[in-house]
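Handoff note, outgoing to incoming analyst
You'll be picking up this chain. Sequence as last confirmed:
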Amino acid sequence: MAARPPMSVLLPTTRWTDACTELAAQLGEGDELLVIHDNEADPVTEQEVYPEGVRLIAAGEPERCSGKANAIAAGMNAANHDRLVWTDDDFHHPPDWLATMNSDYAEYGPVSEVPYFVGRDPLSVVLEPLYASAGSLGLYLGNQIWGGAVMFERDDIDEAAFLDELRRTVSDDGLLMEYLEVTTVGRTRIVPIGGSLHEAVERPVRWTKILRWHFPGTVAGTCLVSLFVLAVAILVPLYMAVFLTAAHVAVNEILGVRRWTAVLAYPALFVFVPLVFYALVRRTFVWGGRRYRWVEKFDVRVVES
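Most recent structure output, in case you need it:
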């Protein structure tokens, strides 16, 4: 069996997290882990010694794009290898994570995993069932990309055009979906989200705007279907409560996750639908401590909070 090529793992973060340690321990010969932060004031720069294969990359402040897009663009420019892995610092990477992704690439070509978002605050907990059905299930069934766990090679995309557009937009994986076809392997990663009411509200705003600019037909369909389901839920509440709960139990089974929050599917609907329409009319949103105004698909402005 031919040896796999070395890879560059891109991990945007301003802090040294468990994910950094987990990934550094999985690097093979010639591999590198690029920890991409903003500037020298970030806590991740405070360590005196870093594991072998780890490089810190200062991306600088974003000007016309999100901090995440800016970090990924800087990481791709700094990476030494053609095989690239994008991942995030907010979920557990088991000891065989990189090896398994490489095996998947050998079999399928570009691959991605699926996130399952678990709330850390009351609002995010309530919204869990709809994040699973409206978000995770669509990624799983549609072979769509999650930027937290995707592997591809430079030749798989038009890299120059991609990086040019990445530096002018918000969503790294939303844009990558336009350049790359992947196979979504049957693994789901638990991703804790939220922690405060503010974070819980800002997240659906950002996600809705990603759909608004990258997949306008999807967001229009989501609005229409949500309104219809909400109307039926009001007219026949008992039947819909049973149906929605059963449907979300089934969604969880497909995704391989068992969460008691499926029983919140009915009340979640009454929170989710207003949030979607609120997100559509919001002019700005906060992500990673920065406030953005997303005027057009490739017109992003970082504004004062």
